[in-house]
Design a protein that fits this description.
- This protein has 170 residues and is mainly α.
- It has one domain.
- Helices cover 80% and strands 0% of the residues.
- The longest helix has 32 residues.
- 26% of the residues are buried.
- The model has no long low-confidence stretch (mean pLDDT 85).
């Protein structure tokens, strides 16, 4: 078999060029953009339905608006725009998890009541403040997830305490 037939004479650049399919790249880009926009829309509707404090709601909505503007800025002419959009979608996912636990923190503060243990209330409030600091700073990556995990633990402890207090009172 001549070497040309099995592709051994082609250069790496020629083989890469043969694999490049512009329409597939474009399809992946628009799918990633659609997924990122859909994640923002989903988070926006969850925030609107959520029973969180109004100041937290406004800041989360501002974060979603910022994410949407970053998504709209990505164009198919940049190198690897789909990867950037997928990363933004992940960040919006981190914001969704943060919203879940911020709402849970708000509920547990209501259950503890104004006369609840100050240590529990202050721990929950500090956890909320830390999460919101990362949201305001635009750090929607692993650092936000780490602080949300801490908030999750604090909320779960406070929820246990509130449930025990309710049982003793009832």
């Amino acid at each position: 078999m001549p070497p040309r037939e099995n592709g051994r004479d082609k250069t790496r650049a020629e083989r890469d060029a043969a694999k490049h399919k512009p329409h597939r790249t474009e399809d992946r880009f628009y799918k990633a953009k659609h997924d990122a926009k859909h994640a923002c829309e989903d988070l926006r509707s969850r925030i609107q339905r959520s029973h969180i404090h109004e100041a937290v709601r406004k800041e989360l909505q501002a974060a979603v608006a910022e994410a949407e503007s970053r998504i709209n800025e990505v164009t198919p002419t940049r190198s690897h725009p789909g990867a950037e959009l997928r990363e933004l979608t992940k960040e919006v996912g981190h914001l969704q998890i943060a919203e879940n636990w911020l709402a849970a923190a708000d509920r547990v503060l209501d259950r503890l009541g104004p006369n609840g243990p100050k240590s529990q209330r202050s721990a929950v409030e500090e956890g909320v403040d830390t999460v919101m600091w990362h949201v305001r700073a635009g750090e929607w990556d692993g650092r936000l997830t780490a602080t949300v995990t801490q908030l999750q633990q604090i909320v779960q402890e406070a929820e246990t305490h509130a449930a025990n207090s309710a049982q003793r009172a009832g």
